[in-house]
């Protein structure tokens, strides 16, 4: 057919079109692109690649040769085109001295890298958002976030993930580029966003070093890890509060609680449950981080509470490496309060039932029989006398039971039922006991079955009146000048039977009498002589005289 003659318009070959094209270059848009320029014979006359810098400018307004202006319109980011520009749409009959001859047809291989317009706004796309979002980012908040940063064509230029730490900064105070300052506003902790920032809200005409060219749009994929405001206090969320709350914890109380500690993104950094042991401490005394000191004020026994603590009331800018807590991290504690007490607390006594006509009550040194159930305040069952065949037996004031239980059994009638709350300093203390955690408050349900009047401390037997004047002679039943164990036992039992005296109450009276005999048989020869027999009251007087 012969030579078709000179081209009338630019020839465009769209040899690569990306699958996703969010935007096409329009007249008046700012664009960035790379190109190679050659003649028909393939000889290169110009290349942006050789200069190591992209070309940036406005398309369609006459700032480029007409053929390039037309050839770039409608391009997508990452689209590649071959352009054939005839001379009258290029440099015409004049050319460019030393570079492009007159009437030259120009061949361009172009890739579009960026498109924006001075009327563009920030483009924010929410990729994911947590269901719970009680608060969003505002100006002056301090944020911790991860990001991947790319140019509009997908070229990565920076990533917090590669550094292994979040980017931490204030929002709205000029520490960030304007587009990021705006793009972070309204985000929830845990939210993911894509933020496309036009150059005039980023690094503009200057770019940034070698990684961000001039007039580059930036794309950030952001995950907000946490945020707070320096003015924040502790935030409390009451998850479960017992209906009955007779008392709330105050400064100086000793609290036992379980907790799970997480960061705002849900990362677990510590848990008392994993150690199978409560955390025990005084509150309001500075033994724990200030936020927890505040967050435990006013808790009820059995309450479950969420305590959100800003970093300035936790571990601050340095974090806590031991717990893998990053610097400036907001901490969330889900707390379950087991019990608390104050070192000044007495035994708390609640009378559940008291029989009518109750005239005789227990006193110190009385021998009592009682049933009990013992548990922790969270309901954990520890011990019960009902697990045994007989009730518990004890002499009050003989240091055979914990002090709090001993106090709670005083002034009771037979048949009376009580609930006792025993603080640890009147229970098993900081060390606890077998089956009892350290510093645990104990709850006892007690029922007094019976009681016997006791004898003073140190006595095994007391006379109801004056003892016989000739005690030894009456005790020596066969008058042989010595009192063996059987004679001693018979005599004592007779005095008890006749109401002249009483033994120390015990479940084994024979043992009490045997102890009495052993005390009097001072040389342990199996019989008591006149010189050996002494009343306890006389022995006490002799000791006082020796001391004087």
Write the layout of secondary structure elements.
Layout: E1 11-16, E2 30-38, E3 44-47, H1 48-51, E4 55-58, H2 66-72, E5 80-85, E6 106-116, E7 123-128, E8 142-151, E9 156-159, H3 160-163, E10 167-170, H4 178-183, E11 192-197, E12 218-228, E13 235-240, E14 254-263, E15 268-271, E16 279-282, H5 290-295, E17 304-309, E18 331-341, E19 348-353, E20 367-376, E21 381-384, E22 392-395, H6 403-408, E23 417-422, E24 442-452, E25 461-463, H7 471-475, E26 483-484, H8 485-497, E27 501-503, H9 509-520, E28 527-528, H10 536-547
Beta-strand level of the residues, as a percent range?
Answer: 25-35%
CATH topology of the largest domain: Chitinase A, domain 3
Characterize the quaternary organization of these chains. single chain
How many alpha or pi helices? 10
What's the domain count? Answer: 5
Per CATH, which architecture of the largest domain?
A: Roll
* Overall strand count: 28
Distance from first to last alpha carbon:
146 Å
Work out the radius of gyration.
46 Å
Mean pLDDT: 92
- Helix fraction, binned, reads 10-25%
Shape: rod-shaped
Uncertain segments: none
SS content category:
alpha+beta
């Amino acid at each position: 057919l012969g030579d078709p003659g000179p081209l009338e318009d630019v020839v465009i070959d769209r040899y690569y079109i990306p699958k996703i094209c969010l935007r096409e270059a329009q007249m008046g848009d700012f664009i960035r692109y790379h190109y190679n320029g050659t003649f028909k014979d393939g000889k290169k006359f110009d290349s942006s690649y050789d200069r190591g810098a992209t070309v940036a400018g406005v398309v369609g307004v006459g700032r480029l040769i007409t053929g390039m202006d037309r050839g770039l319109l409608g391009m997508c980011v990452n689209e590649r085109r071959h352009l054939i520009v005839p001379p009258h749409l290029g440099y015409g009959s004049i050319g460019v001295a030393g570079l492009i001859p007159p009437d030259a047809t120009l061949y361009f291989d172009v890739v579009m890298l960026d498109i924006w317009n001075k009327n563009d706004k920030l483009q924010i796309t929410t990729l994911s958002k947590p269901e719970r979002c009680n608060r969003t980012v505002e100006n002056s908040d301090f944020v911790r976030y991860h990001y991947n940063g790319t140019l509009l064509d997908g070229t990565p230029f920076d990533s917090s993930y590669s550094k292994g730490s979040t980017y931490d900064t204030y929002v709205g105070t000029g520490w960030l580029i304007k587009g990021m300052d705006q793009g972070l506003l309204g985000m929830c902790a845990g939210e993911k966003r894509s933020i496309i920032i036009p150059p005039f809200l980023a690094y503009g005409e200057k770019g940034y070093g070698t990684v961000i060219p001039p007039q580059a749009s930036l794309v950030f994929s952001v995950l907000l890890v946490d945020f707070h405001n320096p003015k924040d206090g502790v935030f409390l969320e009451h998850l479960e509060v017992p209906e009955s709350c007779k008392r709330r914890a105050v400064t100086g109380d000793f609290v036992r609680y379980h907790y799970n500690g997480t960061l705002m993104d849900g990362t677990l950094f510590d848990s008392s449950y994993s150690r199978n042991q409560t955390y025990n401490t005084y509150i309001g005394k500075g033994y724990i981080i200030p936020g927890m000191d505040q967050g435990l004020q006013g808790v009820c026994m059995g309450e479950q509470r969420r305590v959100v603590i800003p970093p300035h009331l936790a571990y601050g800018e340095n974090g806590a490496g031991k717990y893998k807590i990053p610097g400036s991290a907001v901490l969330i504690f889900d707390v379950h309060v087991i019990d608390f007490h104050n070192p000044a607390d007495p035994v708390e006594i609640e009378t559940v039932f008291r029989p009518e006509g109750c005239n005789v009550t227990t006193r110190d040194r009385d021998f009592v029989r009682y049933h009990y159930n013992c548990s922790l305040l969270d309901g954990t069952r520890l011990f019960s006398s009902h697990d045994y065949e007989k009730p518990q037996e004890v002499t009050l004031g003989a240091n055979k039971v914990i002090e709090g239980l001993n106090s709670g059994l005083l002034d009771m009638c037979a048949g009376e039922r009580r609930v006792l709350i025993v603080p640890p300093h009147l229970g098993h203390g900081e060390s606890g006991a077998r089956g009892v955690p350290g510093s645990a408050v104990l709850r006892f349900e007690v029922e007094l079955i019976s009681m016997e009047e006791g004898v003073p401390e140190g006595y095994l037997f007391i006379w109801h009146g004056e003892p016989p004047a000739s005690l030894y002679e009456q005790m020596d039943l066969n008058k042989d000048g010595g009192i063996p164990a059987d004679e001693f036992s018979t005599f004592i039992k007779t005095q008890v039977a006749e109401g002249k005296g009483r033994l120390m109450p015990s479940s084994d009276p024979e043992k009490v009498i045997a102890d009495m005999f052993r005390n009097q048989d001072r040389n342990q020869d199996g019989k008591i002589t006149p010189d050996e027999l002494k009343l306890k009251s006389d022995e006490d007087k002799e000791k006082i005289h020796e001391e004087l």
